[in-house]
Amino acid sequence: MTILIDGLSLGAIYALIALGYSMVYGIAKMLNFAHGDIIMVGAYSVMVAVATIGSPIAAVIAAVVLCTALGIAIEKVAYRPLRGASPLAVLITAIGVSYLLQSIAQLIFGARTQPVTLVSLGAVSIGKLTVSLSSVVTLAVGAVIMVGLTLFIKTTKMGRAMIAVSEDRGAAELMGINVNFIISLTFAIGSALAAAAGVFYLLQIPSVSPTLGSMPGIKAFTAAVIGGIGSIPGAMIGGIMLGVIEKVCQSIPALSPYTTAIEFGLLILILLIKPTGLLGRKRREKV
């Protein structure tokens, strides 16, 4: 049971990151491979804020605000000028932004891994079962965020505008929707989710380095593809699935060295069976 809860907690982190990938792809039709590095920026923001302010809550708020502003700036400076460019040009730019963020972090903080001191949440006992309270908090807050995001997309005017831009950007623009604002809002929400994921990641592994977001970002992208890139429920399901599989494999000594290979093997298997992912759907291209 402890392994399952830890797996759900890790899956919630992957799902939060994967939501950013899916939202950006679904609306802007691009893969933002710099998304994982925003987690790293959020983690460093928490480290600096805790050291200077001393309040973990203020540190979390500072990280979310900084990452949200960074996401908007990246979209405006790096991606908006390439709105009509080829997908390859956008992909290369995204990889360049990723390495730029890592290099800036290395110049400022150095290449070594640094510890981050956060409040210890301890553990809670339920009968004979002892569960880390940080895992419970991560799972609960992650579930609330994902439900809130789903309600925002389905019930608010901005959410419906996002759906309209996702379906047909040209038609949405003709209907008076500010496409640039909607895409910027999508990057802002995705970056805020990445910051939250970075905070939860620090609760499990209290250390930070310039490459902190690389592997979680890749695994979250894998989760988004497994669930169906562009699908918000798919990103949630893919993230939870990947987190549980990872924790289960790590708990079995014979499988532990091959955990990452098993995760990517699952991706290949699902794409062979259902190329659009579990909840993805084919889109008809208009000629």
Task: Report what the structure shows.
This protein has 287 residues and is mainly α. The protein is built from eleven helices and four strands; from the N terminus they run ααααβββααααβααα. It has a two-stranded antiparallel ribbon with strand order 1-4. The protein has a two-stranded antiparallel sheet with strand order 2-3. α5 (133-155) runs antiparallel to α8 (179-204), α6 packs across α8 (179-204) and α9 (214-227) packs across α10. The longest helix is centred in the first third of the chain and has 27 residues, at 2-28. The radius of gyration is 19 Å and the shape is globular. The mean pLDDT is 86.
Give me the side-by-side strand order of the main sheet.
1-4
Helix fraction bin: over 70%
Radius of gyration: 19 Å
The quaternary organization reads as single chain
**Terminal CA distance:** 52 Å
Please work out how many helical segments DSSP would assign. Answer: 11
Proportion of residues in β-strands: under 5%
Shape: globular
Output the structural class. mainly alpha
Mean pLDDT: 86
Low-confidence spans: none
Secondary-structure element string = HHHHEEEHHHHEHHH
Number of strands: 4
Major β-sheet annotation: 2 strands, antiparallel
